[in-house]
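Practice problem. Given the sequence and the SMILES for pyridoxal-5'-phosphate, write out the predicted structure.
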Amino acid sequence: MINLPSIRDQFPVLAREINGYPLAYLDNAASAQKPTAVMDAMKAQSEQAYANVHRGLHTLANETTEAFEAARSKVAKFLGAPSEKNIVFTRGATEALNLCAYGLSHLIEPGDEIIISQMEHHSNIVPWHFLRERYGAVIRFVPVTEEGALDLEAFKAMLGEKTKIVSLVHMSNVLGTVNPIKDIAKWAKAAGAVMIADGTQAAVHMDINVQDLSVDLFCMTGHKLYGPTAIGVLYGTTEIFEQMQPFNGGGEMIADVFEDRVTYNDVPYKFEAGTPPILEAIGLGAAIDWVGQFDSEDIRQHEMALYHAARDGLADLNSVTIVGTTPDKGPVLSFNLQGAHAHDVAQILDKYGVAVRAGQHCTQPLMDRYGIHSTARASFGIYNTLDEAERFVSAVRKAALFLS
Ligand SMILES: Cc1ncc(COP(=O)(O)O)c(C=O)c1O
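Answer key:
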């Protein structure tokens, strides 16, 4: 069992009042709040042992390097990676996915196919469009069913000799759908494709073991996992990292620089150009330690109980349409109110202290799939309470009355 009052005490921002109501922060899929343990770890590092990392010969540089590399080991363990050499720090999931596309671009001949899906975040669409524009890649979108699942038969039928890359989201940021990445990776790899999973949302709500999933590449981000912004992770197998070309040049990523040539540092440093986000990586390590003190099944059950309370609380409202109703899903509730714009819904909810996101959620092809231009989205995290889920329901009911 998780001790909610004790957890909430560690998030000072949750004590705020918004428009005279206690804050109900239900925008966790966009960015989660940080516990004091994370902020303290970053502050302590800044105050006591800050310097640039690597190649330093003085004590502060060595201490900072140790803390930075310790964070890499924590990430490796968190993701079930064989070694910290399989972990590249990036500035977020978006940069990790761009690194995948750039690093694998040498695989693409005109007409080669990259399979993604209609439920991808733009961060897992736009980098592949770069390969379409620059190298003639063909992007194929796995269709999404009415309930919000991937059409796996359609996916299997797409796989063929031309498939070079399959890059799919593990858990959708809009539908909440959890895709069967392990099966998908098996099929993709049998077809000879590189398999990438966008684990940005999944890493927050599920136990991840990249070796068990058998993916070649997997990305996540710090700021949704109760960590800081501007830090993300790309896991890759040694084999794929050796094949990938570096994305940014300069700093720690080189071995030697001559007038006529350069040689690269070993993986993972080959992909970490310039001064890395040092404090942010240390903050991510602290977030992983913080999350690691809880039983992941307890967290999952708690978050899903809130999701179910919110969903069931809206069930009798005919004007509400929920987008994403597959049974395999995480605690994300996207919805629309008939005749109302999602922005108006979110603004009314804010009047009652309830923070939700509204818009396309960086998933325009998914919005097009459903013939809508936006949704309002409530997303639950570890510190949310049943009372907050109920206040969300009551605020949506008031919005429905007001906007109908
Ligand atoms: C599924 C998914 N992929 C990628 C991203 C991009 O993450 P970041 O903001 O860390 O670049 C997000 C952020 O919302 C996401 O939800």
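Check your answer against the key. The mean pLDDT is 97.
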